[in-house]
Amino acid sequence: MEKNTLVGYSRPKALKEIIGGLNFSLIKSTTSIKHPEIIHFKGLLNNSYYEGEFQNLFDQSNFKAKITKDSLIIHIQNKNGAKSFIKAKKVEKIKPLRNYKETFKSIFKLTEDNIYNPLFIESKDWKKFKKQMNKLSKSINDDYELQIAFYAFARKFPFSHYYLGKHKETTNNANGFSGFANLKHVNTKTCILKIDGFYGSKKEMDSLIKIINNKNYKNLIIDLRDNQGGDLEAAFPLAEFIIDHPIIAGVFPNKNWYEDFKKLPTKDDYSKFTEFTGGTLDQWYKKASENYGAYYKVNPSKIHFNGQVYILTNTNTASTCEPLVFGLKHHKFATVIGENTAGAMLSAKQFVIENIFELTIPLNDYITYSGERIDNKGVKPNIEVKSTEALKYVLDLIE
Questions:
Q1: CA neighbours within 13 Å on the CB side: how many for 247?
Q2: What is the CA radius of gyration of the chain?
Q3: CA distance 398 to 382
Q4: Residues 81-133: pLDDT tens digits?
Q5: Bridge pairing between strands 59-68 and 163-166
Q6: The CATH number of 181-398 is which of 3.90.226.10, 3.40.50.620, 3.40.640.10, 3.40.50.150?
């Protein structure tokens, strides 16, 4: 703090140290990042508050701060309108919050014990990752630095669904309704089912399906743009409502399969896997861990949608969405319009570390019944248009 200016930052040059000097120079020249620290802010005194710009990696926000005795409270106004605050307290000496070398030991062991393809554990990528994380663990100062270091290197791995975040206690919704999807009436012939994420229950999806069926719509637009997945409980009923004959939606081999066979399974191998026809996430985890894994079989429900189905996708349409999109497109139950999906399709589970962190690990690979891997590839739409134009395109097409 100098005269009427307040300057603050997290550990000096931590970002540059984590990603390396060359990489830092590159992102500094091509992105909004200006400083070698993960967090950096600067503000001028305006009455009793300091106001200025707050940088948190790629996010640039306005902030308003006030100093009271030995504390600093920063109120942040994000560009999307969301507000947050940080409270800092003066300390005599900065020291690491915890033993991060031990945290990485837990990350390594959980990954090596559970990841779907044990061959990856023997790869140069994994050995290099462990070496880099052990080296950085000596200087990492807080949990945020740990997450940044993990992401900076793990994002280069040749598979998705490997993440490290802060653990949050799950809470049950008091009214049992998650609001994961909503139905919009366009006209007597057309409706839009917008699904933000597959985090709802079978009961919730069934209630929306009942409305669609009772209204006797001729056109169903399923908007999966920016839907990054979820679990199976709400996805299965939707697929069952659309199809008119059973389909096998793909197989999920676990580590046992790759240890014994070291190849992708084919249709001839399905007898070695457990059949799964719907249920809760816990029921799926149990089936998928048995023997060599499990495969999806989707049976049509008693009520069936007899009209035209259109699915809207973009590059953020991921995970649980992708077998649904692929299957309905492949079997010609739907026309997919928009952009290529994310290509992030593996079955993963969260593991809690020290009751502080949550490590997501892919436990099962995914291969479609026709033998294709979607992870790192995605699903190509029938009709390619920009995400922002997809809905208008479909409505014009229907008219």
A1: 25
A2: 24
A3: 16
A4: 788 888 888 777 888 999 999 999 999 999 999 999 999 999 999 999 999 99
A5: unpaired
A6: 3.90.226.10
CA 362 vs. chain centroid, Å, equals 12
Domain residues of the chain, as ranges?
Answer: 5-89, 100-158, 181-398
Element (H, E) at 364: strand 357-364
8 A C-beta contact, residue 159 and residue 165:
no
> How far, in whole angstroms, is CA 276 from its chain's centroid?
23
Q: Which two tokens stand for residue 9?
A: 């930052």
- Note the pLDDT of residue 174: 44
SS3 329: helix
pTM (2 decimals)? Answer: 0.91
Count of all residues that appear for the chain in the document: 399
As given in the structure block, the two tokens for residue 47 are: 């009455």
C-beta atoms surrounding 127 within 10 Å: 11
Structure tokens, 94: 């900065």
Query: What are the φ and ψ backbone dihedral angles of 2, each rounded to 5 degrees?
Result: -140, 120
